[in-house]
Design brief:
There is one protein chain. By secondary structure, the chain is mainly β. 8% of the residues lie in helices and 48% in strands. The chain has two helices and 15 strands. It has a 15-stranded mixed beta sheet that branches. The longest helix is centred in the middle third of the chain and has 11 residues. It is globular and about 55 Å long. The termini are far apart. The N terminus is likely disordered.
């Protein structure tokens, strides 16, 4: 029986929340949209993510439950090796350099070699453990349920996650999926912020690595300082 698993690719931190065929990781991965709510260092974030494997990019629209932190967008371009931050309230722009890599190839390797079934929890939950080879000791636990379809395929639908990363000041995060994962429809405007350029953008100082939402917890917190 084919097992189709939807995971937080908890990207990278897998990383992200994706849908993939575990026995066919060579297949092209669809672009994904998902919304997660997570606590990072006592700050509650709601993050609408568009994971575009087709363009090797990730977009996040970030809000919090704190009135002193305005909503902002982040665009990660892994081909160019750039991170762009746009403040929706002030129109301010920021940018930083990040490592270049192939998002789809990274995810395929993560799925094929670094995800283990960790057992059953409670009456309905199944647990998977995701390990990140580039960060020893880092891992994400994903809780969800299996649902069978009429064709005999079994779909894993994630509901919550916990992550631990000893390389970060904020080592532990947890969160939940608050909307159904869906196929994203991206075009040339999805990641376009023409109002931002190097001339009017502040150079951001952050130590970036791929985290539970595509950006590590320390870097995410530095963007709201």
């Amino acid at each position: 029986m084919k097992i189709t698993i939807a995971l937080v690719c908890l990207l990278f931190s897998v990383s992200y929340g994706l849908t993939f065929l575990k026995d066919d990781v060579s297949a092209s991965m669809p672009d994904i949209q998902q919304v997660i709510k997570m606590d990072v260092g006592g700050v509650d974030f709601v993050i609408d993510q568009t994971i575009a494997f087709s363009q090797n990019k990730l977009k996040q629209q970030v809000t919090t439950f704190r009135g002193d932190i305005p909503a902002f967008d982040i665009v990660l371009d892994f081909t160019a090796g750039t991170l762009l931050q746009y403040n929706n309230l002030t129109g301010d722009c920021g940018y930083a350099e990040i490592p270049k890599f192939d998002l789809e190839a990274y995810q395929a390797d993560l799925i094929a070699n670094h995800i283990d079934y960790a057992g059953h929890r409670g009456q309905n939950l199944d647990l998977f453990e995701v390990k990140y080879p580039e960060r020893p000791g880092s891992r994400t636990w994903v809780y969800g349920i299996f649902i069978a379809d009429e064709q005999g395929n079994s779909w894993y639908l994630p509901s919550r996650f916990q992550a631990h990363d000893p390389t970060q000041q904020v080592q532990d995060t947890d969160g939940e999926f608050i909307d159904t994962q869906s196929v994203a429809h991206v075009d040339g405007f999805t990641f376009a912020y023409p109002q931002c350029n190097h001339a009017n953008s502040k150079k951001l100082s952050l130590d970036y690595s791929f985290g539970i939402t595509g950006i590590n917890s320390d870097a995410l917190l530095s963007l709201i300082e």
